[in-house]
Amino acid sequence: MCLQMLHLPHNFCSSRIESCSTVSAQSLVLQRLRLSSHEKKLQASLLHWKCTDKQIAASIFLWKHHCYYNRIDELISANRQAVLSFCRIEAGPKTAGSYGPLTRFPAGTQKLALRCERSRICKLELRDKRAPKVFANMARPTSDMLWTRIVGDKVFRFDSSEVERKQSFPSLSFLDPIVRESIVEDPNGLWEEPTFVPSFNSRSGHQIVTLEFPANTSFYGTGEVSGSLERSGKRIITWNTDAWGYGKGTSSLYQSHPWVYVLLPDGSSFGVLADTTRRCEVDLRKEAAITFSAESPFPIITFGPYSSPEEVLTVLSHATGTIAMPPKWAIGYHQCRWSYETAARVQEIARTFREKKLPCDVIWMDIDYMEGFRCFTFDPAKFADPLALTESLHNKGFNAIWMIDPGIKYESGYFVYDAGSLEDAWVLKANGRPYVGDVWPGPCVFPDFTQAKVRNWWAELIRDFSLKGVDGIWNDMNEPAVFKTLSKTMPGSNIHNGDEDLGGCQNHLHYHNVYGMLMARSTFEGMQLAKPNKRPFVLTRAGYIGSQRYAATWTGDNLSNWDHLHMSISMALNLGLSGQTFAGPDIGGFAGNATPKLFARWMGIGALLPFSRGHSETGTIDHEPWSFGKECEDICRVALRRRYHLLPHLYTLFFRAHSSGAPVMTPLFFADPKDARLRKIENSFLLGSLLISANTHPTKLANPKECVLPKGVWHRFNLVENHPDLPLLYLRGGSIIPLGPSIQHVGESIFHDGLTLLIALDESGKANGVLYEDDGDGYGYQKGEFLLSFYEAELPNFHGTYDGGEVLVKVKKTEGQWARPKRPLQINFLIGEGAQLEAKGLDGEEIRLKIPPVSVVEGLVAASQEAFSAEMGSKSSPEDIVSDEQKGLRSPRELIELTNAHWQLKVVPWIGGRIISMVHSSTGIDWLHSRLEIGGYEEYSGAEYRSPGCVEDYSIIKKEIQESDGQNFLSLEGDIGGGLVLSRIIKISNTSDKILQIGSKIIAKSVGAGSGGYSRLVCLRIHPTFQLQNPLETVVKFVSVDGIARVYTANFGETSLRDNDRPNGKWMLVDPISGLALVNRFNVEEVAVCLIHWGPCSCNLELWSEERPVSKDSPLGISHEYEVIDV
């Protein structure tokens, strides 16, 4: 190991060099450095080169405030390999700069040799030999990007230059990365040139790309996002984040899809992919414009425009792949909880489902099945015989899915840790040692899935694990999530020794967003090793565009409330519009306690989503369908029976998604993309030609009069029974969908079972439909072992009114090697308002259904409408009440509002006394980034992140809300244990004062005598999370205690300021785009540490007191204030 140091000016970014593993000349990767305008000669040192040869030569050139790099041109010992593991450049003697963009060495400059000998300090002198061709930090003028054709017609790759095209990292989104690099020639000269050409400029090492579209264009997709269905006006940051309890405006969730689905005003579809794994801002706030901003360089891939809304996703799947074909049992209903803590409890859950005739196919095991949360182990007391448990579940028709996290307990003697250490399998710190971070088992190391050898090692672990009674695997916490850290993940400076085909050796900032996908890939491959004749089922929390190739997903740790029920539809839709169609929420909500009404409504909707699973958090009440009383249980039973009747249709849609990339679930505008009414509909969706109209408002029930239907023929119908808390079902005219029998699990259905065709004719009297059938598992379908039936129905001389005649139903054509079984076929023919005509026959034979005279038809329709109204009116809805034991998230308490001419504050006293909204009245900007349960303005009683103080129930000591002169005043107090309370006073004046004042103290109220009157060690930590309107441009400014003016730019990391580096009583969060700054003033004598932490589009400006015990006479306190000023 060669150890070198490099000293650069204070405003430099850190950097490192990627691996070079052959003796031939190869490109290295080095970050573009930010150079001050007066620098012309620099002395440098390189930190941590791992050399297998004694000497190496490199060429690096710097020119004033630009950079230029040459390629590795020579290895001194020509017949030996030299591996350059990593290099970091320090940003001065005190503080290391952040990792930033990477670029490859261009060829053709003069060379400057660097000698590197083992165990010896080496020096490198960098001289400005000549003017560079690459400008690292100067903002380039806006210009159009260069394009080439890839994949096929209407698919284009755009790069800012030929040089940067060559510098781009390999694609991890594409199924075959070579496809992105391969130019496709137009065979006949008939292909169109790009309709929309992006423009770009460069600023601060970022490539900023903009595409503009016609007015009234709508944006969707962007992967896993909360909030509204239409993404126009939103901003998303692609940075995989453990986002427990996320809200409508949370900018970064568990997955990253730098992709926008574009619906043009004429109804044609278009798609845009920013093919970068790094943190990327997707800004849709400007009308009819998309702006991507990420570290340079990266290509833009565009798809379209296409005439249908589905086609752009079909072509996208040619690039990024389709979903893996799931086993049929996986599209049944799944039941989960954190946790079913013993095998006996699992058996009880399974037995109750069957006793109560509630259809279900899967039961899940969360982390408590493990021994001490060690992955690949089973608790010897609670899960002593997993094989026997699984066999018992199989006998009842259930499959078993078990959780595996990436965090491996850092413990010598634990077989996984020991084996991984022998493989050098762990992610490394910048110093070359394995990174250790806290997760469920305590200190953990993390597999480096960017290496094929590590993925293979992990796959072997999965193989062995899968043979112990495992039918499917759940990858959780794989963002990767890390406890006790503000960033909720590992440091960006960590090192992944990635394979060259993935991008080589890079820091964690480069691979963070694909860590979960690579883990899912390795897990998928391990299950294939274990059971090569079975289709793997993997569920992953973290993902990246393309992860649908390996795993299904769910929408993470949602909340048991009506907002999250409503959002769950849009979230599943946008994931489908981003290529990941096997998705759904935790039915009932993960965190908090659902009410009977909320759970019943959620089950009605969730049972019709592609992935259907109930799941709830530890510490909440039971959330099984029978846990909320008989009314709720009965509704859940109908909802689940509906799903299982629809399984033939759903399975056909999944096969179509696997084969063509078409989503299983689509927005309403897919029925008529030109109809502007449909573009914002969030409570209805399509499953093929089946329309689901749901109601997500707590006080409203299902009502056909309020259902928005696309143009054309739509027939409402009943499946099992109607209920006001269940969605309404409609079938589009011209459609035939297959229905199956009533079953309790997929294993009960057989190929010879009777089949029902539900038919609705279009205006011309015709209808068509498809049914796909195979073994439900395995890969025989790839060899033609399936039956694909195309049905058609026709009523000759139909003119829009049913009045006699005969409908002919037949099989138009078939595909596949399977012979059609001799099975009964029932025809349910829709004639309006839920009324049906029926006929029976044998599948494969022509069936004729006679239509009665119009008077009879009208009578049937009227009777059906009357019966529907009576049925809906006779059934009561479960109550939307909260029991006494349901506390916290569902507690029926009110926010406290403090307002004056300058501020509008909202305070949540029952969850940490947090301030969740801090709106500056004159600008309308809410400076806080918050949800009800987390974020916003919090305070802790220790230096550890989220230590006591942020979740406790605070008492209101005093509240004064003055309507005229005087102050709005709120005093809160929370018990933080050990005889301590955290006290907070919030003041805003109703006069002309623009200041918001906050005073906080940790006070010893009842510290025991045995402690001498002194408490445990405490630290008052002020933790506000401010949201940034313009994250790339926003900076933190202040003058430090030692009189130096300092500026900190967004670097997606954190900086701790102590002693003379602290602000001298004032610091500012400055947004030069809006022309506003948030000023925070404080008493520097009360503050020991100031901490800056940059999130995806947020910034924490923290104030920490000293750490010490407190007594009644010696509290810890910090008084500070906020003001918004013009800059």
Question: Layout of helices and strands, plus pairs?
Answer:
Blueprint: E1 29-31, E2 41-44, E3 60-63, E4 66-69, E5 102-104, E6 124-127, E7 143-144, E8 146-149, E9 155-159, H1 162-167, H2 177-181, E10 199-203, E11 206-212, E12 218-221, E13 235-238, E14 255-256, E15 259-263, E16 269-274, E17 280-283, E18 289-295, E19 300-306, H3 311-320, E20 333-335, H4 343-355, E21 362-365, H5 386-395, E22 399-404, E23 408-409, H6 415-422, E24 437-439, E25 442-445, H7 452-466, E26 472-475, E27 495-497, E28 505-507, H8 508-511, H9 515-530, E29 538-540, E30 543-544, E31 552-554, H10 562-576, E32 583-584, E33 586-587, H11 596-606, E34 612-614, H12 630-645, H13 647-660, E35 684-687, E36 690-693, E37 714-717, E38 728-732, E39 735-739, E40 755-760, E41 766-773, E42 787-794, E43 806-815, E44 824-832, E45 835-842, E46 847-850, H14 854-874, E47 896-899, E48 903-908, E49 914-920, E50 925-926, E51 937-940, E52 954-960, E53 967-977, E54 980-989, E55 996-1004, E56 1021-1027, E57 1035-1040, E58 1045-1049, E59 1054-1058, E60 1063-1071, E61 1076-1082, E62 1089-1094, E63 1098-1104, E64 1116-1126
Parallel strand pairs: 14-30, 20-21, 20-34, 21-22, 22-26, 26-29, 29-31, 31-32, 33-34, 40-44
Antiparallel strand pairs: 1-5, 2-6, 3-4, 7-10, 8-9, 9-19, 10-11, 11-18, 12-15, 13-17, 15-16, 16-19, 17-18, 23-25, 24-25, 27-28, 35-36, 36-38, 37-38, 39-40, 41-42, 42-43, 43-46, 44-45, 47-48, 48-49, 49-50, 51-56, 52-53, 53-54, 54-55, 55-64, 56-63, 57-58, 57-60, 59-62, 60-61, 61-64, 62-63
Helix pairs in contact: 7-9, 11-12
